Amino acid sequence: MKLKNIPYLLGWPRPKPKRYPPATMEVLIDGKPLDFAYWTHPAENRRSPTQGEIDELRKLIRPGDICVDIGAKTGDTSVPLALAAGPEGACVAVDPNPFPFPVLELNARHVEGRGHIIPVQAAIATENGTMTFRYSDADYCNGGLFPNISTLNHGHVFPLEVSARRLDSLLEEYPGYLERLRYIKIDAEGYDFEILKAIKGLIEERRPFIRTEIFRRLPDEARIGVFEFFSELGYRTWRIETLANLRGQELDRDEMLKKKSFDLFAEPV
User: Which residue has the higher pLDDT, 16 or 154?
Assistant: First the structure.
């Protein structure tokens, strides 16, 4: 934890968040320019979609498929998913943070005609309601829930109450989406495993491809738990080395402990 954040941990002073506006850049996808919005928060890791990433997703996602982006934030992963599914499909982009949410909404408008993004301002949970997330800075750049990780370890001390939704009930609002579910991406700053457990029934029923984050401060027992979760459901898992090649090093229990932070790709057998 940063020393300057300790007073906030004690509840004083109250944070006064600054609103950072979106900015737009142009990227070339399928030989055509596409406006892509990004957040100007100085701590934001800015990343734009690439052709190689979209080509890799198109090996898995068919036109008309439904994708879900949990922890969509600004839409840097939602846009590639939407382009892979095409205008006949959709990416349901879910993120509870109100501060970057206008950027996600702007990217949904930018992709119209080439894909379809449905922005939803909520967290995914076992029940509909509210949750309190904790963020890394007073301007609410990165945050989530951190079960079994101490505050002194994760250092996220800025609370924010957010809406929570069950994923199955959310998708039921869109006729045919559950039946066409093909791909789920999860990036929730340490809360990923809890989300996986919350949507286990949906995974068993629909058997989607899944990309999820292994948080750098995730305890070893939770890392092994993620591997066993997928193994018991009949999935093979890989460490993603590049988004243009999702099947990097195949994972086992030992491999789950070798790198502190990485993204995992899971494929139903």
Answer: 16
Residue whose C-alpha is closest to residue 67's, from 211, 213, 268, 166? 211
- What does pLDDT average to over the chain? 92
The CATH number of the domain where 96 resides is what? 3.40.50.150
d(CA 235, CA 269): 5
CA angle 191, 38, 139 (to 5 degrees): 55
- Residue 65 belongs to a domain: yes
Cα atoms in the 13 Å half-sphere on the side-chain side of 118: 16
pLDDT > 70 fraction of the chain, expressed in percent and rounded: 90
The radius of gyration of the chain's CA atoms, rounded to the nearest angstrom, is 18
pLDDT, residue 77, reads 98
The boundaries of the domain holding residue 57 are 3-211
Average pLDDT, stretch 219-229? 97
- CA 178: distance to chain centroid? 19
Domain count along the chain: 1
Strands (E), 128-208: 129-135, 143-144, 158-165, 181-186
Is residue 73 domain-resident? yes
